[in-house]
TrEMBL record:
This is Glutamate [NMDA] receptor subunit 1. The lineage of its organism: Eukaryota, Metazoa, Spiralia, Lophotrochozoa, Mollusca. Gene3D superfamilies: 1.10.287.70, 3.40.50.2300, Periplasmic binding protein-like II. One of its GO terms (biological process) is ionotropic glutamate receptor signaling pathway. SUPFAM superfamilies: Periplasmic binding protein-like I, Periplasmic binding protein-like II, Voltage-gated potassium channels. GO terms for cellular component: NMDA selective glutamate receptor complex; postsynaptic density; postsynaptic membrane.
Length: 982
């Protein structure tokens, strides 16, 4: 029983022990043969970081080992056997020796023999694409032969179908030729001629001489850097880098020190950044192990799970090779796809990287490399920002402004043409704008429009009306051109040289006649003198002559509103107002029918026409304001008032008319009226006018007999360029400048201080100049006519010359001016002065009114005090009279009472009559002291106040109270019983 019980326990312990053994992660060592210790450090960092990732945590643990690659291939192979294989490496990352760029061919051979995959990070030789020799080799960089794909894309983009292929007689040259032929056949691109040269030669003139005999003018060059320097030198000697040619060279050839102007070359982005490629190689290895070792989520790792790779070989001997596991790991590496530091990392069946990112560079006229395009898909680089892959997006992106051989910016036709055109021009805004070349060497047009162009003209950039026209003509006539500026900056005139009898043409016409240029593209006026020596095309623009002057701006003063009348008239008007007011007052004052003389008039003296009212009436009539009071009453004064009203009407109407003339039509004026102005015919010393020296305008004045006087006046002041003359007009040193109307209209539209004077005169046409009998005259003339018919010339006029819509200047002089604050400031100041005067006068009136009010108040107080004093005296007199009557009534009542008592005593009991006694004041006041109506002689106490009695007669004071008027005085009844009011 015990043994039976212990069997399951032992089995469980065995299972736990085996599971613990299987729970240990598999240790995978990645080897490397690198070029420097710095790269060894980055390799160590990259492998160590793999263990921090969660995908293979607890399943695979990565270790690293690395060696420095030796420049000796045999020693490098021995290092792999002695130092890498004993570490049981599963794969090897291979670079190149530090002292050279030799391919790691020994590492590939050694590891390939044991089927250990090798990931190259710098090998670009096409030999590594041979799977029969390098069966286990992959690389994170593409081979040189892959440049053929970029070349085909460029040719297709530029629409070139015929090329000449120059390549080296080695394996690399043959491989890229084979690759290009395969791809070009699909795009219908034909190789007209191939030139194979032997690497290492010191002269290739004989080989390159064959190019001149070919129809194609597009050369593709595959060469090493050293051979390319010789080829470029010999090609320049043979004039193969002039106009009409196009060169597209390989990466290594573009690295030469003497690459000519206009050559296109390729550059693999991050191609030489070994550090980034090491990280990408380690990432690819990790992705392969994830594909091999990470179990599906639905499956649990058990003890029966087998290692998919097993142990790699640990020495170079006759031990069994790692062919099955090595091939399995190689397949996993080749089929992996991961985003690395150099972009999307993918491999083809040969182990070569696909989808690399190339930069297309161009040598500009400043001998500098500039990027003009890119080829590739989703990349991470400093050149192009990260973008989402788009299968529909073309892998090639190229800029339109490319410098081609000869320094031209016009794309070569790709085939041989009869000749190239040398164009001479000169600065003549807006036809030819000349600006400094940007630091990047790429000329950009000032107008951001699709059909606007800018071309290099020596060290400058030329754009404008003529340059856009030249580009379209060259497209129609199929010629290339280079542009340069005239040497002396003159259009050209026929003059004597060195005070000799021989006359020669100078300026651009002189360069054309002397063969220094083939065409003049500038605002060149067609005239008989020039037409006798050169050919002109049909006019591309008709124009006339005009005069540019500076505007005369009238300054508006504060007294602008006073301009309609002279000072004398203003004084007389002001004097007339006061004289009429005085006469009106006198007439109405002394007239028998005035308000002062009418006896039965109900008007008071205040309604009469006093001097103030007469003044108000006179001003009111003049200023057309309503008169509500103070009008004259007499007939004589009213007649004068009507006459004054008529005078005021005439004065106001005249002022209004002249004010419109002085202010509403106040416009800046030109100094002259036109070509017939007397100041041009007979100028004063301080009036100067001129044109451009040795120009068609000067010839026009010289040829016209009626203008010969003007020519003599201008001859000594003519300027060498239109720009200098226009600036002199701005500065005031020149009063008038006579020149072509398009330029002057352009300047007047962009400078509000300038204007044109008069109508056009001397009408003519502008044409393109060519040599006498030139083969291009007819075709260029047809192209000009075609541009006219298509409306392109009108578009150029709107773009470069007719800029009135952009101008902020006022419109023509025919429109009335708008009055501003400067014109009417004096009126506002006059109103402000009236307001200030009114405010000051109101303070004076307030002070005067306050002074008068204080005096009236003092008189009122005195009158009130006197009235109160008289009232008090009267009140006391009335009170004394009332008291006197009361005493008399009391005495009569007392006497009557005494008599009655005596009579009663006599009749009743014959009692003796008491002697008479005067009643005391208390007895008297015990009754109603205000009147006898309430007197009760037999009552012993006084009646108190009853609220029901509203009259003062019902007031009954308490004992001891005495009422006098409205005052009640309380007394002690025991004191002074005989008190009486005196």
């Amino acid at each position: 029983m015990c043994s039976v019980k212990f069997v399951p326990i032992l089995a469980a312990l065995c299972m736990l022990t085996f599971a613990g053994v299987m729970a240990q992660p598999k240790v995978v060592t990645i080897g490397a043969s690198l070029s420097s210790e710095r790269h060894q450090f980055h390799f160590k960092t990259a492998v160590t970081d793999l263990n921090l990732r969660q995908q293979l945590a607890g399943i695979v643990e990565f270790n690293y080992t690395s060696i420095l690659m030796d420049g000796n291939p045999i020693r490098s192979a021995l290092d792999v056997c002695d130092r890498l294989l004993p570490e049981k490496v599963y794969t090897v990352v291979a670079s190149h020796p530090n002292s050279s760029m030799h391919a790691p061919i020994s590492v590939s051979y050694t590891c390939g023999f044991y089927h250990i995959p090798v990931v190259g990070v710098s090998a670009r030789d096409s030999a590594f694409s041979d799977v029969n020799v390098h069966s286990n080799f992959l690389r994170t960089v593409p081979p040189y032969s892959d440049q053929a794909e970029v070349w085909v894309a460029i040719l297709e983009h530029l629409n070139w179908k015929n090329v000449i292929f120059v390549y080296s007689a080695d394996e690399e040259g043959r491989k890229i030729l084979s690759q290009f032929q395969t791809l070009a056949e699909k795009e219908d691109i034909k190789i007209d001629h191939t030139i194979k040269y032997t690497p290492g030669e010191i002269n290739y003139t004989d080989s390159l001489q064959e190019i001149h005999a070919q129809e194609a003018r597009v050369i593709l060059l595959s060469a090493g850097t050293d051979d390319a320097e010789v080829l470029f030198h010999d090609g320049e000697v043979l004039r193969l880098f002039e106009e009409d040619f196009a060169w597209i060279v390989s990466e290594r050839a573009f690295a030469a020190a003497n690459v000519p102007v206009g050559v296109l070359g390729l550059h693999l982005v991050n191609g030489t950044d070994e550090e980034k490629h090491i990280y990408d190689a380690v990432d690819a290895i990790y992705a392969a192990f994830v594909a091999l070792y990470k179990p599906p989520s639905s499956r649990i790792t058990t003890a029966t799970a087998a290692d998919p790779l097993g142990e790699p070989p640990n020495q170079c001997n006759d031990s069994p090779r790692w062919d099955i596991s090595g091939n399995k790991l190689y397949t996993a590496l080749r089929t992996t796809s991961t985003m690395g530091r150099t972009g999307m990392l993918r491999f083809n069946v040969k182990g070569d990287r696909v989808g690399a990112f190339y930069e297309i560079n161009n040598i500009n006229t400043s001998k500098r490399q500039v990027a003009v395009g890119f080829f590739g898909g989703f990349q991470v680089s400093s050149v192009e920002p990260t973008t989402i892959p788009d299968d529909k997006k073309a892998p090639l992106r190229m800029a339109p402004n490319i410098t081609w051989p000869g320094g031209v910016t016009t794309k070569p036709k790709g085939i041989r043409i009869k000749r190239n055109i040398t164009v001479v021009t000169m600065k003549a805004i807006p036809f030819v704008n000349v600006e400094d070349m940007p630091p990047d060497g790429i000329c950009k047009p000032p107008l951001e429009q699709e059909d606007s162009h800018s071309f290099p003209c020596e060290v400058k950039c030329c754009s404008g009306y003529c340059m856009d026209m030249l580009y379209n003509i060259s497209e129609n006539c199929s010629f290339n051109f280079t542009v340069h500026l005239g040497q002396d900056g003159l259009f050209g005139s026929f003059e004597r040289r060195n005070n000799s009898d021989q006359k020669e043409w100078n300026g651009m016409i002189g360069e054309l006649i002397n063969g220094e240029a083939d065409m003049i593209v500038a605002p060149l006026t067609i005239n008989p003198e020039r037409a006798a020596n050169i050919d002109f095309t049909k006019p591309f623009k008709y124009q006339g002559l005009n005069i540019l002057v500076k505007k005369i701006q009238k300054d508006s003063s504060l007294g602008s509103f006073l301009q309609p009348f002279q000072d004398t008239l203003w004084i007389l008007v002001g004097l007339s107002v006061h004289v009429v007011a005085l006469v009106l007052y006198l007439l109405d004052r002394f007239s028998p029918f005035g308000r002062f003389k009418l006896a039965k008039s109900e008007d008071t003296e205040e309604d009469a026409l006093n001097l103030s009212s007469a003044m108000w009436f006179s001003w009111g009539v003049l200023l057309n304001s309503g008169i509500g009071e103070g009008t004259p009453r007499s007939f004589s004064a009213r007649v004068l008032g009507m006459v004054w009203a008529g005078f005021a009407m005439i004065i106001v109407a005249s002022y209004t008319a002249n004010l419109a003339a002085f202010l509403v039509l106040d416009r800046p004026e030109a100094r002259i009226s036109g070509i017939d102005d007397p100041r041009l015919r007979n100028p004063t010393e301080d009036f100067k006018y001129a044109t451009v020296k040795d120009s068609a305008v000067e010839m026009y004045f010289k040829r016209q007999v009626e203008l010969s006087t003007m020519y003599r006046n201008m001859e000594g002041t003519n300027y060498h360029s239109a720009e200098n003359a226009i600036q002199a007009v701005r500065d005031g040193g020149l009063q008038a400048f006579i020149w072509d109307s398009p330029r002057l209209e352009y300047e007047a539209a962009n400078d509000c201080d300038l204007t044109t004077a008069g109508d056009l005169f001397g009408r003519s046409g502008l044409g393109i100049g060519l040599k006498k009998g030139s083969m291009w005259t007819h075709s260029v003339s047809l192209a000009v006519l075609e541009l006219h018919e298509s409306g392109f010339m009108e578009k150029l006029d709107n773009r470069w010359i007719l800029v009135d819509s952009k101008s902020q200047c006022p419109e023509g002089n025919s429109a009335p001016a708008t009055l501003g604050l400067t014109n009417m400031a004096g009126v506002f100041m006059m109103v402000a002065g009236g307001i200030v005067a009114g405010v000051l006068l109101i303070f004076v009136e307030i002070a005067y009114k306050r002074h008068r009010g204080m005096k009236e108040k003092e008189l009122e107080l005195a009158r009130n005090a006197a009235d109160r004093w008289r009232g008090n005296i009267e009140k006391r007199r009335t009170l004394r009279q009332t008291l006197q009557k009361q005493r008399e009534e009391q005495m009569r009542a007392a006497n009557a009472l005494q008599a009655k008592k005596q009579e009663a005593n006599t009749e009743g009991n014959n009692m003796p009559t008491p002697p008479y006694r005067r009643p005391s004041l208390m007895e008297a006041t015990g009754s109603n002291a205000l009147g006898p109506a309430h007197f009760s002689p037999g009552h012993g106490s006084a009646t108190r106040y009853s609220p029901s009695h509203g009259s003062p007669t019902h007031f009954s004071p308490s004992p001891g109270a005495v009422r006098s008027g409205r005052t009640v005085t309380w007394h002690n009844p025991a004191h002074n019983p005989d008190f009486s009011v005196i």
